[in-house]
From TrEMBL:
Chief place where the protein resides: membrane
Membrane-related topology note: Multi-pass membrane protein
Annotated protein name in UniProt: ABC transporter permease
The UniProt record lists the keyword Cell membrane: yes
Family: Belongs to the ABC-4 integral membrane protein family.
Species this chain originates from: Limosilactobacillus allomucosae
Ranges annotated as spanning the membrane: 21-42, 275-295, 330-352, 358-386
Length: 401
């Protein structure tokens, strides 16, 4: 019997009892769906971390060095051009570039709103106007205002109502941040920003160019260190930190902290990989139980179709053909359930990722598909082989009696 005939015969047999076939595949579907969901979310977290912290597009590593002043009212600049030049001169063989790191998303500020100081506020900075916010009073920022460093700013709805009772009252008022006095030209609708991961959920939105102008353009509390490929970024960063603690322009006014994103990323990736493997192993239990169900269903099928087996043997079918047919039925059953589970897991991961913080998106790879296909086919082979052998070993004389 040719393979195409075997497959057609297997499908016809499964369609003969669709409810039983469907119920048998549920376990496989749930198990595969759970594994794919976990893998997709784990891959999404890894990709998000990699995009955020790991390397530049050219594969170069980078780390961050931060300065924290001893006194919140301190005038210490943190890092200056002098520090950057010293780092590049002393560590130039390893460090490709040292630059002030300016925060543009949810940067912490303590603005003077009207006559009241607002502590722990956040501001997001733009280079061009955005349509991702909804203006509910006044107007949006314009491209010309951002390019020409006009002191204008947008205020979030919740802050406007808190300070001025209505959003309309906030338009035209002033906000002071650092050396700049801004005029509020619009109020935008509040967006969720629980983890400070939503750029457009900040309390204020202004222009990057004006905010980091003057002395703030060349100073800051953080620097980004970009390393040549092959450099031990973590080790060199520690040396730079020690050097800053001795020679930095603000060495006596605060403390330095190194953040090796690559090392942290490796730890987190290892943790996620271990967690994913552990949860996948638990999900694998459902696949084992589902495999038992497939085996039971196939034994029942062999028992119910004894006459059919006898007829096939009587008209010349070889035992190996009978065995192949029943084995193929088991494989078709489990692969069908596995593919359905793959689709459900993909959709489920996509839905769950919509509720995850830090804009994590589910990532389903070709390996995930091959895993779902391979595991479900293996379950069919492992748990279908014994019933198939039983069918092939049927004695034609006993069947005819």
């Amino acid at each position: 019997m040719r393979n195409a005939e075997l497959l057609r015969s297997a499908l016809q047999s499964l369609r003969a009892n669709p409810k039983r076939s469907f119920l048998t595949t549920i376990g496989i579907t749930i198990g595969i769906a759970a594994v794919i969901t976990i893998l997709a979310l784990g891959n999404g977290v890894k990709k998000r971390l990699s995009d955020e912290f790991n390397t530049t597009q050219n594969g170069e590593q980078y780390t961050y060095l931060y300065f924290t002043p001893n006194d919140s009212q301190s005038a210490a600049s943190g890092f200056t051009e002098t520090d950057l030049n010293a780092i590049e001169e002393r560590f130039g063989a390893k460090v490709k570039k040292a630059a002030i790191s300016h925060e543009t998303n949810n940067a912490s500020v303590s603005p003077l709103v009207g006559n009241e100081r607002v502590n722990n506020a956040t501001i997001s900075l733009l280079k061009r106007p955005t349509s991702k916010i909804s203006i509910i009073a006044g107007r949006n920022l314009t491209t010309n205002e951002l390019l020409t460093e006009e002191p204008v700013i947008l205020m979030k709805e919740s802050l406007a109502k808190k300070q001025y009772q209505t959003v309309q009252n906030a338009v035209g008022t002033s906000v002071s941040i650092g050396d700049h006095d801004y005029r509020v030209v619009g109020v935008y609708r509040s967006q969720t920003n629980t983890y400070n991961d939503n750029k457009y959920g900040a309390d204020l939105i202004g222009g990057t160019k004006l905010f980091y102008s003057g002395t703030t353009a060349t100073t800051g509390y953080g620097i980004k260190l970009t390393f040549y490929q092959g450099a031990n970024a973590g080790k060199v960063t520690k040396k730079i930190k020690k050097y800053m603690e001795k020679k930095g322009t603000s060495a006596h006014d605060g403390t330095y902290m190194a953040v090796d994103a690559g090392a942290e990323l490796t730890k987190v990736n290892n943790m996620i990989t271990g967690l994913t493997a552990f949860i996948s192993a638990i999900a694998g239990i459902s696949l084992f139980i589902a495999g038992i169900g497939v085996m039971n269903m196939m034994y029942i099928s062999v028992s119910e179709r004894t006459q059919e087996i006898g007829i096939r043997l009587a008209v010349g079918a070889a035992p190996k053909n009978v065995m192949a047919q029943f084995l193929l039925e088991a494989i078709v059953l489990t692969v069908g359930g596995g593919l359905l589970g793959f689709v459900i897991g993909w959709l489920l991961a996509g839905i769950i990722s919509n509720f995850m913080p830090y804009h994590i998106h589910a990532v389903v790879t070709l390996n995930s598909f091959l895993l779902a296909f391979g595991v479900s086919a293996s379950v069919g082979i492992i748990f279908g082989i014994l019933p198939a052998k039983q069918a092939a070993n049927k004695n034609l004389i006993e069947i005819l009696r």
